[in-house]
Each structure stands twice: as C-alpha cells, then as structure tokens.
Amino acid sequence: MTGPARFDALNYSLPAIADGRVPTLGPLPAAAVPPLSEAIVAMDPWRKYPFPPDAFCRMLTADEPGAPRLAISLEGEIVGVCVIRAAWLRGPYLQFLALLPKVHNRGVGGAVLAWLESEARRAEERNLWVAASAINTGAIRFYERAGFTKVADLDELVCDGYMEFLFRKRLT
Asked: Which residues contact 19 (CB under 8 A, 6 or more apart)?
C-alpha cells in the first residue's frame, strides 16, 4: 500500500464527458460558496431537510485537514462542489457531492467518480465510500450504476426522521 490518496493538488482534470468537454476540480473560491449554498438548499434532498444556506456555507468553508472542498467546473464555470475525506475506512469517502441541475445527467458526476476511483487505485486504496439519503433515489441509482453497493442503513444521520444509506465500492 502506498498510503491514503491525498487529493492535495491544486487542480485536477477529470475524464471528458460525452460532449467532449473536460470538467476540472480546483480550490473552492470563497465568493462561490454563498450562491452554491443557495442552489444546493433548493435541490432535493436538501430542500426537504431543515438546512439553511448559511449551514452549507459553514460546511463548505470549513478548513479540515484531509477533507478538501473542491469546486467542480466546466469551461471555467463552477457547476458543483465536492468534499472528499481522504482517509476513511481504508479508502476515501466522498462526503458531499452536489451538481447544479443544468449539468445533471451530462456525465459530470460520473467523471468525478471515475477520477476519485483512479486516484484511490493509484494510492492502492481498498475502498470508495459514499452516503446518500433514502429520499434521493436519483443519487442511489447513480451510485449503484457506478458499482457501489449499499452496506448500511444510517438512521437519522443527517436529519431527524430521515434515513441515509452508506455505500461501498471495493477496489481490490
């Protein structure tokens, strides 16, 4: 094992999406956080949870070693955000992934997952992890199509009265 994937480069190019464009990951600019937070709370499942935009602002601006906050961009425009916990149960945990509706079903999320898997394999990690809300059926289908398997029910992890599912993709 070479050690946990670090995800500490300044910028990453992701695999090209179907239309040939190449999404990128990079530092999340502070000025982008409020509008992203507003957009996130307007989408399910977050719309159903009692999280105000300022809660997302705090989460997206938190400085946690080993858990970078990365802007997902397409042709220079920020179209989403992800948070990766680099070292979690023998592999990285995609703690948060949100894409703006205008890039849903365009391959951007798949490019993020492909890149994450590539980085984890390069570091000889054993697993990839992600959690999804039970009410977010689109995310559940997305992760299952990408090879993730549900391994646990997490009752009221994020919000009282709601269930989250933990998913794992074995890399070895």
From this structure: 106, 107
